[in-house]
Design a protein that fits this description.
The protein contains three helices and nine strands, in the order αααβββββββββ. The protein has 176 residues and is of the alpha+beta class. Strands 1, 2, 3, 4, 5, 6 and 7 form a seven-stranded antiparallel β-sheet that branches. Strands 8-9 form a two-stranded antiparallel sheet. Helix 1 runs antiparallel to helix 2. It is globular, with a radius of gyration of 17 Å. The N and C termini lie far apart (51 Å).
Length: 176
């Protein structure tokens, strides 16, 4: 019996799961890129593309705890800079285009911490983008609605070390 592309993705990630290494990231990155090429005729993907939910959990591993979500972003939707604490995430764009910016947190002597933008990447259908623990990034839907997959090492609702940032007069600072 052959499963769906989603089943194949989950099984391959599960079979290679382990400590955070370059090899694990590369395997998960490749698997997510493969999932983005799944036939749109598979029922789970056809439903996702038709319904375009704001957020839908596609898979949660009962042993290792990694999670795959799908998100639909309206054109212009902006998510302010944030990190994922001690977790890591891989985004993959199925439809539309997302701009993802990266930041460094800097702090001079006697100064409050602030962000400096390093740059941004336009993530198009089929592309994936990796953010490791502590990587600070923002997202903006530039062509939408965009449908993206978000693969996380664990349930981010349980992540207590995440930091979100707020714009205070043109300077990004940790929000309270």
């Amino acid at each position: 019996m052959t499963g769906t592309s989603l089943d194949l993705f989950a099984g391959r990630v599960r079979d290679n799961w382990g400590a955070l290494t370059s090899e694990l990231i590369q395997n998960c990155r490749v698997r997510l890129a493969e999932l983005l090429q799944a036939p749109r005729t598979e029922a789970w993907l056809a439903d996702l593309c038709h319904e375009r939910p704001e957020s839908r959990e596609l898979y949660r591993d009962p042993v290792h705890g990694f999670v795959l979500l799908a998100h639909t972003e309206a054109e212009g939707r902006y998510r302010m800079p944030h990190d994922h604490g001690e977790s890591w995430v891989i985004y993959g764009v199925l439809h539309g285009e997302m701009e993802m910016g990266t930041y460094a947190r800097v702090q001079g002597p006697g100064e409050a911490p602030r962000l400096v933008k390093r740059g941004s990447t336009l993530v198009r259908p089929g592309d994936v983008q990796v953010y490791l623990p502590g990587d600070i990034h923002d997202t903006r839907c530039v062509s939408g609605p965009a449908i993206q997959f978000r693969f996380t090492a664990r349930d981010l609702r349980l992540e207590t070390t995440m930091v979100r940032y707020a714009d205070q007069g043109g300077i990004w600072v940790p929000s309270a």
